[in-house]
Amino acid sequence: MRRDAAIALGLLAGAWAATLWLxxxxxxxxxxLFVYRVLAEQVLDGGLPYRDAFxxxxxxxxxxxxxxxxIGTGAELFRAAFAGxxxxxxxxCVLLCGALATRSGGSRRTGMLAMALAPLLCGAMVRTHFxxxxxxxxxxxxxxxxxxxxxAGPALLGAATLVKGYPLLAAAPALAWLAGREGRCAALxxxxxxxxxxxxxxxxxxAASPEGALEALRYxxxxxxxxxxxxxxxxxxxxxxxxxxxxxxxxxxxxxxxHPADAAVVAAFDGLLLLALGLLCxxxxxxxxxRSLVLAALATAVAFAALGKVLSPQFLIWLTPLSALALAWxxxxxxxxxxxxxxxxxxxxxxxxxDVVAREPGAVALVALRNLALLAVLALxxxxxxxxxAAAARSGWPGRPRRPRPARRSARGLPRRSRTSPG
Length: 423
What we know:
Blueprint (H helix, E strand, L loop, with lengths): L1 H20 L11 H12 L16 H6 L8 H29 L4 H9 L1 H5 L2 H4 L3 H15 L5 H10 L5 H16 L1 H25 L1 H12 L3 E2 L3 H11 L6 E5 L2 E5 L3 H25 L3 H18 L12 H9 L3 H17 L4 H5 L3 H26 L3 H5 L29
Antiparallel strand pairs: 1-3, 2-3
């Protein structure tokens, strides 16, 4: 087992080196490192996020971003330190994928090796954005839940939410899974643990600066439909058939679209997102196995990326553990389409991003194809959740079994005989 881990980590190091020095994987002409470096300088100089330094993310993103600045905040030094920090988190994700594959009836070696190759699918964005931090925390939370830690797991999901908000969606199927496996009381206690962590984090943000914390919320809420999102693809299609013009909007450090129907389109996609979350929760509740938990929770990130009005290229980093674990479970179609969606994003970003903004037909079609692939990933995940999980049932994972129902008793207090039993 140690040999498998060593091989996977060595493979990760090679793939990471490609993102640093080998084209096209090393293309980093569009990245967020300058924004991160400025924030790190302000925080390390004693400034408080939200009060002295603008932070568009939840409060725990600040220490995650600022940590590499302890080595240095010069452009090249911070770039190298940030890449090293993300490499450490990537190694953690590799080991966590191996552990989750074992718990859920999959191949530990395959899960680790597939996750180790993820940087080749993502390209340089995997080391120029901090998205591996919430990914690692989410995987660790799922591992705790698989091991029967029904309070520590949701608490860690709360911490992941305080780094980047999307893991909060994973809490919905996780709580439904707990309700199906251990009962409503266990799910309520888990929800309380999750809420306590998030409340403390939000309280710290409000204590630092109520106005700054609320401004961060407004900043996210006011963002236009991002040009790479599925709703933007729908708006461009409406523009193409002559249903009013989709106007380009540059704001919130991104490029978006404005259209008379944008509110209706976003509302429709939000409805689909809620429907997808409901289906994922139902599947996790009906089949409370380890694999159902992991698959449903990770699929929430796909739903957010596929159906939300904001889709930044780095969101595809969230799909890497799903693709790796699907391969470990021999869900080959799910693994292949997930990998395709990530790879298409690398083909488009950053090399063709300017063409997307300029609405060059080939680049727009590439983004539309990627968005269709994301929807296909979501559909394949739901299909996988609907099948009996024989492999997961045989795996003997260490989570606690479903509580048996108490035997029905007669009026005399003796167990009641079954109608089909002899005698």
